[in-house]
Amino acid sequence: MKDANSVLSSYSTTVFEVMSQLALEHDAINLGQGFPDEDGPEELRKIAADSLMEGPNQYPSMMGIPELRQAIAKHDKKFYGINLDWKTEVMVTSGATEALADCLFGLIEPGDEVVVLEPSYDCYIPLIKRAGGIPVTVQMSAPDWKLPIEELDEALTHDTKLIIINSPMNPTGKAFHWEELEALAELCLRYDIYAVCDEVYEHLIFDGRKHYPLITLPGMRDRTVRIGSAGKSFALTGWKIGYICGAPEVLAPIAKAHQFTTFTTPPNLQKAVAAGLSKDKSYFASMTKDLEAKRDYLAKALADIGFEVLPCDGTYFVTVDIRGVHNGRDEEFCRYITTEAKVAAIPVSVFYDMEGPSNLVRFCFSKRREVLEEAVSRLRKALS
Which domain of life is it from (predicted)? Predict the structure, then answer.
């Protein structure tokens, strides 16, 4: 038989699936894959269930139901002061990963360079390559993950078509400061490139900090697309409801990619997410406070065991340096604790296209407190 596609065939199964299956096999607590162990708001689930029974259950608009697109526009106005025309600047997708794929397939041509900051979420590089783009990686350094402006400037060329920005950032937990975003905006304008902003953790940002979308900076309104995720904002990751906001001339080619990918998204879930995005700021503040307490607990407990815990500005994840408790590589360590301590985590080296550090591991803290406590107890016993 003829060979399958050489780009996607060259990748193994995603590490999240591998570690989750290993966790199941060994009855381990899964602090690897990033999902909560409790479902999101009951009222939203009830709206989705009622809407499923009441209908309609036929194809909704390719762009998303008007109710949700209007809610997204109002949400972005309320939180960030962004004025969006919901009819021409908002599109609903079947998850943020599809949104990323749509952006890349819609905006780049074969041979275009796409700059990615590493460590990066694992779908970025494969999607760039499958779209025919050339990934250009720029590594950030622990422990503070400061934006490497000089290295970015060197990496950008006249062949660069866009840059992917993830803030708050998976896996590092880094949220870019205003000064860093200003520097990014200046580079985008100087090199005349698009910015695809993965902001799925926009409401999961801690220590009183504020999330600043790059699209709000001077000159960036017409060259930036902003990606959000209801799955992350409402702890409903299985729903796979994402959305893209951008200027009409930028969103139009992205919509064509969406048209030939999933085309549309379940209408009952869209209706429930519309209700969720209409919640006032106190809901999101409460959710953030709860997650922040879990971050603080797990970070302190891991430090007490002997890990060096890196700063975490947001997301579901805390990253640790394992050298205080283990002399091997991160992948070896993660397999060891999954099989022996019965706790799963993710090696950060898998978030690099080229060789990256092998001493960092990511733990997910979006679990019930008693689950985190049991995981810590198991780790302490196994690593003592």
Answer: Bacteria
